[in-house]
Amino acid sequence: MTYNSRFEGIICTFARGLGGDSMTSRRDWGRLLSNIPLPEQNLAGIAAGLVLQRVVPRRLVKASGPPSVLLRLAGGASLAAGGTLITWAWLAARDTRLATPDALVTSGPYGLSRNPMYVGWALVHLGVGLLRNDAWTTAALPVVSAEVHREVLREEALLEATFPAAFSRYRQSVPRYVPHLRAGFPAALPLRPRR
User: How far is Cα 83 from Cα 154, in angstroms, rounded to an integer?
Assistant: First the structure.
């Protein structure tokens, strides 16, 4: 048994445990892996920040003391929240190829935010910067976020062209990034327009 066969077996077993028998074929396994989100913008921003921090170190706060502890706690919380959101979004989209969708994903975190994976990666990026007390990585986040936003606008234009009526209802009901702060978030379609 080759390494890839063992890895495929592990993924298929994991997927069966998550969603029954729907993820057991090679095609479904490929779809699952193709949906692993690796946004180049965030990875490039984190990498650039790490390199700059090595060359010209800049800290957010003094390396010791209560502010440093609080910063690291906030970083850990941001990293954990981002990782959880990415995983939740990935699992919610497991039956759709995100690069070329044949349906809108509107359940799970997609019922709260139209772009939960991007929000999750922003939280991961922030968490890395805060955990490392790294001013460069943290400072790269707004630049990265601007580039991600341009990508989101391109993706939304494609979704609107592909699913005109459904995406229009979805856009009216679910915010682009940050969920509305109110009780009773909608978890899935049917969607009701905001009033």
Answer: 24
- Whose tokens are 């993924």? That residue is 11
CA-to-CA distance for 109 and 84, rounded, in angstroms? 10
pLDDT digits (tens, 9 = 90+) for 129-142: 999 999 999 999 99
Of residues 78, 61, 76, the one with CA closest to residue 133: 61
Domain boundaries, the chain: 1-34, 38-173
Q: pLDDT per residue over 33-56, tens digit each?
A: 666 767 889 999 999 999 999 999
Record the tokens describing residue 81, joined without a space: 């929240």
Q: Which residues of 47-78 are buried (b: 16+ CB within 10 A; e: fewer)?
A: ebbbebbeeeeeebbeeeeeeeeebbeebeeb
Percent composition of the chain: helix, strand, coil (DSSP 3-state, to 5):
65, 0, 35
pTM of this prediction?
A: 0.76
> Could you read off the pLDDT of 64-108 as tens digits, one per residue?
778 888 999 999 999 999 999 999 998 898 888 777 788 889 999
Provide the 10 A C-beta neighbour count for residue 28.
18
d(CA 137, CA 46): 5
